[in-house]
Amino acid sequence: MTVSNALANTESREILIFTLGAEEYGIDILKVQEIRGYDAVTRIAHAPEFVKGVINLRGAIVPIVDLRLKFGLGEPTYNEFTVVIILNVRKRVVGIVVDGVSDVLRLDEGQTRAAPEFGAAVKADYIEGLGTIGDRMLILVDIEALMSSEEMALFDTL
């Protein structure tokens, strides 16, 4: 797997860093619309477990996905640090629940590496690469690929 074109064609870019458990993840800051505290959601019948439900965001109905459940990282704990990152993906608004947001960092091209090959046993199409800043390792998520993946069923396929 090679580094995506979005990663390879830029010299540097800003990444929003969020945590899920002990791991740090990063997404392109340009996909982020806002960051909000976690509030109650309205459950949708027959939705996958990782789709927590929907919220009304200034008149728009926004689906909310819990990434801890999506990534199989155990039962989420919702506390004062839990946040919802509101994203704009493919001209649609969607929210992701994460354990916390820590930084916005600039990653230079030399600080990113291609994601390792995992084989068919591990589905990691959404991993754009790995970022390193000092001794920190960041898992860079292609949030557009993740949100538009077939198992998410949030968007019509192209």
From TrEMBL:
Domain of life where this protein originates: Bacteria
SMART domains: CheW
Keyword vocabulary terms for this entry: Cytoplasm
Broad class of where this protein is predominantly found: cytoplasm
InterPro entries from the UniProt entry: CheW, CheW-like_dom_sf, CheW-lke_dom
All copies of domain CheW-like, residue ranges: 12-152
Keyword Cytoplasm assigned: yes
Location of this chain's protein in the cell: Cytoplasm
UniProt name for this protein: Chemotaxis protein CheW
Coiled coil: none
Species of the source: Parachitinimonas caeni
A family per Pfam: CheW
Keyword Cytoplasm: yes
